Amino acid sequence: MLHRKFSAAVAALSVAASTFATSGPANAQVWTSNETIGFVVHGVGYGHGRGMSQYGAYGWAVDHGWDWREILDFYYEGTTLADVADSDLRVRLTQWDGSSEIVAVSVNASVSAALGDQTIATGSSIRLLKTGTNSFTIQSAPVATCGTATDYPLPRGPFSDTSIPQSAVKSVQSYLLGRGFAPGPVDGIYGRMTSAAVERFEASVGLPIDGIWTAEEAYLASLQILQIPKDQLATGSRDYASVRDLQRFLNDQGFSAGPVDGIFGSMTESALKRFEQDAGLPVDGVWGRSDAETAISQKWSAGSAVAEWSNVQVSVSGPITLSVGENETSGNGAHAIGICSGNRLTHYRGSVEFLQTTDGTRLINQLSVENYLRGVIPKEVSASWGDAGGGAGMNALRAQAVAARSYALAQSRYIYAETCDTQSCQVYGGAGTRSSVDDEFLPVEKSQTDTAIIETSGKVRKWSSGSNSGTVASTEFSSSNGPTTAGGAFPSVADLGDSTSVNPNHTWTRVITSDELVAKYPTADLDLVATEVDPASAYEGIYSHRVRLNQNTYVSANSFRQTFGLLSPGFSIERLTSSRASDLKMVQIGDSVGVGASARNLGGAIKEFSGHLFAESLFNNLESRPLGSSPRSNNGLEVLGEISQETDLVVIELGYNGGLTAQSIDSAMRILENRGSPLVAWINLSERSGNYEASNAKLREAQSRWSNLEILDWQDASSETSQNRWFATDGIHLTTTGNAEFSVWLTSELSAILQLFESNTDSPDNCDASSVCESTTVIVTVDVPNGPVEFKSSDTSAVRKIQQFLVQFGFKPGPVDGDFGRMTLAALNRFQQQNGLQVTNQWSSVDAEKAREIGSVVTNTDPQTPSIFPAGPLSVGNADSSSTKLVQRYLSFAGHNPGPIDGIYGRMTASAVTRFQASKGLPQSGTWSNAEQAAAST
Asked: Where are the beta strands (DSSP E) in 514-632?
């Protein structure tokens, strides 16, 4: 909410009818638009909302002390706990769907390839090549290798939409999938989804966004994989995370950089120089591109050997079973069979089978249900939950184990396998992974989840009645269901457990701009788009919605969810309209909070929304930007000093990096005063973290010193406990939901500011005894005091006349309020400087004489004349100077920007006249005549 009304705006607008102004809020045109600018999506949960909520299980276990049996009874009404014997399960490993090549590795023994019961090949590595329909060649190698020689962990490419080979593309896809860039299936096909994922990766690392994987993409991705810094580092570098990575690398390579503390001191520099000397690089102690490339080569060379493959069998019909001599249950997961994707390995307990199906080749992992669960539970929930609440969280893991076991046993999806390894079934990660055959094993399996599986061994949920009585129930579950589950196979329940504080998605918010919605649904009527109950829905509450696009068109909530990447189909839509629009220019300056609010990929949309409120809106946000002293490129004060003098409203979101002091606030306001910025809206700070109460107090104190300073109260708007999900754990930065909420809130605040402009422009006569409203009689002479009038003078009448003159001729003193403050003093100084007068910090008779001289061009009009505007006609190359100046001053006042007020009726003036004519519904000729005179006088 606005902390108080913009007194400065009111004052400036109240005198608009009595003065000309060259820029600033007094020129603003504000009108009501009621335009649909976007939609606020209020959602619940993450997933389909049916059955058990995983976060709900955590909440019931940790917050409410429920046993795992109680949790299962709560979510799966109509079922009962039962026992089953352990059995084998076949899992489709979708990453290798359609593959023409499979490479299996044993890191400590050998791999066997078998046809039925007959072993036909062994080796440290086995490669299977598809040579025809259900025809394979089996090769072996004496060393453990994936057989892909590269100098980077990832191939250099270039890859585009028609690229080969398949194995190299799979390697890229696996990397993108692991980093969250969603390339679609890991199928070796460089299609549109993979190209789009590469584009998202390119955007994240600052590369040109073209969707083509090249050596540069491979280089930056390899740095991430190997945790090698890419940025230039030298003594004194403040990029502590990158310095720590450098120190780890140097220590790992034996160059003794000392403690890994992120401080680039003499020990780190000496170690780097030793590395450079050893590698034959220029020895300068500065980490750069050549150092990083050499580091990649040194860390990766051991894993890039090429295997000498030997044919063992050719033209073999499948299926072919691959296994290692390791006990499936008691064996070390690091020694389980490894399947290569590029150079990366995924280890699986049990055996794998490569076979031909009518849908293409498939790779199947066969293992016991209990061992399968070891690779499922830690991928579905965090194993660390078991440690929460003094061990109470183990009940959530136990409940998850039973639900996952029941769900798996109830599946029968394919002829060749019961289930798959993705979210479409249950996420299954195998036993663990390696970046290469020589790299460290990273286990998927965790001790807490292994324990939960053992403690619930063989336990499932079976239907207790009905036609399915006694069969294992397909116990669906979601990450989060929100306040109420969706219903369906299991009755809907009010889920208090789901509201646990660790659940970021119990409720959530997203914003969709009007342009985004129309791009996806071109026939949508923006004024009718809404959610409503779908009469055909099998679900309850918010999960029963569909989306209306126009009078006769609907889409399902799930389809709409997938189109816009929403977390669940449980949502409602609120139309966001712009009730005010203007011809003002706004600039917003901020730090990383501002970055999120103005970045669509982070959930913010203030940049898009503000485009509907202002004629021009500019954004300058930078992570870790402080307000006070710092390097110039990172200093908020520096960027404030670069704001255009034509800016009408400055919105500041700064203070988290070092806090706010009276000095830093005054420095910012003084800079803006010198830039002639009439209005400053400062967003205060969330007080969830740090000593930001003091910063907010300093902001409030500053309002008494700066009449043009307004506080936008984000602290008040976001202080409810229920709004904790808007914030990251630091209490400062915002989640995707927070960025969306912040964008909507700030849009509302800016709209309220424009409403002040509108109300005070439309009603200049609503003045009381304490107001600064002036006569609406047009001023045609320059009425200024002789002086002297000093800074902070108490002669408000004299000061007001000086301010009126300064406003009239474009020196931007701020509000005409009779207060000879800093903005008025800065405007006076600019007037004196531009006219060759001595800068005296006071108004004197010399200044008054110059003011009357400047104003003489408008002193020849009778005050009783209805209009001071010439009748014309005035046109390009055909206008006298004094008449043209009058028109130019008016056009500048009205916000149509005729350029300099120089008496020359040129192209800029003609264009401004054309814009004025368009605003008044006149023929757009660019010529000023009687009709324009009349329109300007009303």
From this structure: 530-533, 545-548, 554-556, 571-578, 581-582, 585-590, 616-621
> What b/e string do you get for 456-489 counting C-beta neighbours within 10 Å, with b at 16 or more?
beebbbbbbeeebeeebbbbbbbbbbbbbbbbbb
CA dist., res. 746 & res. 752, Å (int): 10
Give pairs for 626-631: CB < 8 Å, separation 24+: 626/591, 626/654, 626/657, 626/658, 627/654, 627/655, 627/657, 627/658, 627/660, 627/664, 627/665, 627/667, 627/668, 628/658, 628/661, 628/663, 628/664, 628/667
Please name the amino acid found at residue 163.
S
Task: Tell me the torsion sign for CA atoms 11, 16, 20, 23.
Answer: positive
Peptide bond preceding 873 in cis form (omega within 30 of 0): yes
Q: What pTM was computed for the model?
A: 0.67
CA distance 298 to 400: 43
If the chain, 938 residues long, is cut into consecutive pieces of 10 residues, what is the mean pLDDT of each piece?
A: 39 26 46 82 94 96 96 96 94 90 91 91 90 89 76 70 66 79 81 86 85 84 81 80 82 79 82 85 86 77 58 89 92 93 89 93 96 96 95 97 96 94 91 89 95 96 92 96 95 95 94 94 93 93 94 94 94 88 90 92 92 91 82 78 88 92 92 84 91 92 88 92 90 93 93 71 40 35 80 86 80 78 82 84 88 58 48 80 78 69 76 84 87 80
Can you read off the two tokens belonging to residue 611? 């485009």
Angle, in degrees to the nearest 10, between helices 736-762 and 7-14: 30
H or E element at residue 353: strand 351-357
> Tokens 């607008």 belong to which residue?
13
> Is the C-alpha dihedral spanning 718, 721, 723, 727 positive or negative?
positive
Q: What region, left, alpha or beta, does residue 50 occupy, with left being phi > 0 and alpha being psi -120 to 50 degrees?
A: beta
203: nearest Cα among 602, 501, 486: 602
CA 511, CA 822: separation in Å to the nearest integer? Answer: 41
Contacts of 498 (CB under 8 A, 6+ apart): 45, 53, 55, 56, 59, 480, 481, 482, 483, 506
